[in-house]
UniProtKB/TrEMBL annotation:
PANTHER family: DNA UTILIZATION PROTEIN YHGH (PTHR47505). Belongs to the ComF/GntX family. Residues 23-86 form the Double zinc ribbon domain. It comes from Fuerstiella marisgermanici. InterPro entries: ComF/GntX_DNA_util-trans (IPR051910), DZR_2 (IPR044005), PRTase-like (IPR029057), PRTase_dom (IPR000836). This is DNA utilization protein GntX. Residues 163-256 form the Phosphoribosyltransferase domain.
Amino acid sequence: MQSNGGRTTKLKESVASFLQSGLDVVFPWSCLLCHSTADRVTNAAGGSAFCQTCRNALSPELPYTCDRCGAEVGPFVTTDNGCVHCRGKPIRFDSLSCLGMYDESLRHAILSAKWSFSTVMLESLTDLLTDNRGAQLRDFDPEIIIPIPQGWAARLTRRFNSAAIVAAALSRSLKVKSDLHVLRRSRNTRPQKRVSIQQRFENQKDGFRIRDAHMIAGKRVLLVDDVVTTGATCSEAARLLKANGATACRVAVLARVLNPS
């Protein structure tokens, strides 16, 4: 015999499906990226914001990635000690999961999101990250999610903190607490774009401070950003988190930039 709880859940699902059908008639669905009305995908959360074609373009299969930095590598590459993109660099986080490499469709989507007045694109990309890389994140078994914080200059010039939006969306999907206040910027660092890889790591040194160490002591931390290039920013943050008691630190990002060695 079905329990009252089971009947209630089915009733809620039926009502939600009915309401969604009505909304689809009044406001026809279209892909958030290409605006096509065809090829809609249904996922665990209901309907995906992206059509199947765009989902494949944004997050292609990544059968071979570096265990250390998440970069896509060839099928016969051993990455126990890193790959050409991270070997020899002072990476302090344990591993990295990403939606895809920072090129073509994913690059366009992230840039569109950063300059948008809405957080919908970032949240939808994060939902896709959970759909396609959720097993990796759950296997890590994080106990707290922490976004890379912004400096005061970025807070003044940007509409929102992309890392915080991604962290909040992951928190909802993974049912893990997200905290914006544990990790803080201790100073404004120089722009990273026009400096060498070595300078990027030096630039981030002592760039963070811990506000509430008891929140991470003895815990497995999922550190979140929107895009990773060299890993310098996340590496310095991970170093400080571990120095203050975190037992492990995995990074989750939307995109991994394949930088030269």
